[in-house]
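In this supplementary section we document a worked example of the pipeline. Step one takes a protein sequence of length 278 as its only input; no multiple sequence alignment statistics are reported here. Step two produces a three-dimensional model, which step three serialises into structure tokens for compact storage. The input and output of this example are shown verbatim.
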Amino acid sequence: MLQRLADVEAMNKDPNGRPALPNDLITWLVEDSLHRGEPRKGLENLLIGRLFMANFAAIETTTMTITSTLFDILSSSPAKKFAETLREEALNMLKASNSQPKKEDLLRMVRTDSSMKETLRLHAIFKALAREVTAPKGVTMENGLHLPKGSRVCISSHGLHNDESIYPNATTYDAFRYSRVLEQPAENGTESPKPLSQSLAATSEVYLPFGHGKHSCPGRFFAADEMKLVFAYIFSKYEIMPIEEKRSDLAIGFFPTPAFNGPIKIRRRPETVPSKVG
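The serialised model returned by step three reads:
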């Protein structure tokens, strides 16, 4: 980080005197910080902290979602055939795309998408969303309540996600809760919901793992596709034994995380192992 700081400062002083800098997150963070005129003393530590938070948001959350979804699927009753259904969907997608899936191919994985969305509903990383009033004169609500500048307002995403009036059987993991709506025929001449309206990346006032509105997570579309590819690979290539009892989540501060010691028995499907030559 110190070296990149020095390189960006040198580039700003003499753009023609040094080779082009890497076009990556570290450079972006340094350039933004210098542009805003932040104090130079201790700046590298501040930038490292921002880089860590970006990595956490982009990598750790995806890893935890994949792990939690696997635990949820495998610990569900085998009679529901969640894993078998997802394997069939993955194989159909890979066959249709000749194992070279594109965006439109991943959009067809509605059951995989639904299983991940249901996991995030039950295991949202952020139990609540907080916003701070920044308007100089504050904000006055419709009921007359005035919130002065600097007030913080929190919304319980955990409460919404476990509300029986919004989600029937709210505490039960139902992998196809969202895809089932898409697969039911429309009634009374109404149109069926569009797939994107029920997708993992679709936010709403009652589904908040990614936030909502203009500040909702911009990387959620990429993350959804990335995780679909991971699950397509896992379910097409490996056999996984059901789990009799799911381990409870751990808590790191306010963040829930899958149990570190949750065992999964997995093996490569024989038909997917490349044959040896010679």
